[in-house]
Input
Amino acid sequence: MNYVAERALLRQSQLVGLIEEACQQLEPSGYQRDLAKQRYEGVGDWLSRSDDWLLTSIAIRLQGSVAIGTTVKPIGANEHDVDLIAHVPDLDLAVSPALLKQRIGDRLRSNGNYAALLVEMPRCWRLDYANEFHLDITPSIPNPECRQGGELVPDKTLKTWKASNPMGYRGKFERRAMLQPRIRSLHKAYDSARADTQVEPFPEEKRLKGILRRIVQIAKRHRDMHFIDDDEGLAPLSIIITTLASRAYEFCVNQFAYDHELDLIVDVLRRMPTMMQTETAHGRVTWCLWNQTTAGENFCEKWNKHPERAQAFFSWHGKAVADLEQLATAQGLDQVRRLLGGIFGAAPANTAMDSLTERVSVARATNRLSVTKPAGLIVGTAAAATPVRANTFFGGRP
Output
């Protein structure tokens, strides 16, 4: 590997590390996760012990970003949402969504702790734990028409049931997330480590745990930054971003090999719009992003009533791809910090940059930072390793 190629690989390695660090800053803390788990289990236990005949078999399950590990805390806030399904498996269409929702609300209201936190939403109940998180509890019953174990949830007016499949969607996402991409730089590092047992490669297999989940978090956070002043509800829904990213990831992993994880991230983001279906009739475009785990659920259905939402999506998407492409070729710490801040926000970006600077400084001070060919950046001493000079791989000094 020549010097220029080696420097490019090292720079991308550091960029991926920065992205991983920034994504970690977007997630709930360990304390918040433990607290949410405790309260989620408490709500489930309370509902399951109801003596209401409608709720005798009710079961509480996670859905959404917490369930699949793609949570992103709101900008400027410490709280996040936890989406729950209150599924009653022995009910059928004879029970109206309004009635089931009412009975669930009555049961929650009968608990003095929950009554003060209860907020009624159009399709669900919310338990609002101020400055921590809120639990959204949506009723559901089995969908007899779905062979994939689908469910029915209330529509916005509570007049009819509509198809959904939160458990099926979760399972499909998790299967896609388990797909392993072909990353050439990782194979090179592995081959080098086998050739010389004295070389301790930088542990790339431990970085960016769950590439698909990180891609979704990157896209969601960039959306939040882009639409920070959105008062018209134009920001793309998380379910749209998550679905497009997971389908694009599956396509990319199955079709291509990449020089580095960052190349994969950019390619997945770039291909997201190609995962949608469109139909044109009488000059009007109809957008379709079907839930592949049930029939009749179009995640883009609101675009067909509000075409400005589709326009907003493509405007945001173009900016997101351009920003990631710029970051991938960034030169100099100031430019890296600025671009990272534009994607994640100043606080996560600064934390990631400071962490990188500290790790490199400590490794250099203890003579544990060096470069080997072709393993790249390593922590520790090794035969045939060259000590790193006093600068970073972005063209500037730490």
User: Anything to note?
Assistant: The chain has a mean pLDDT of 86.
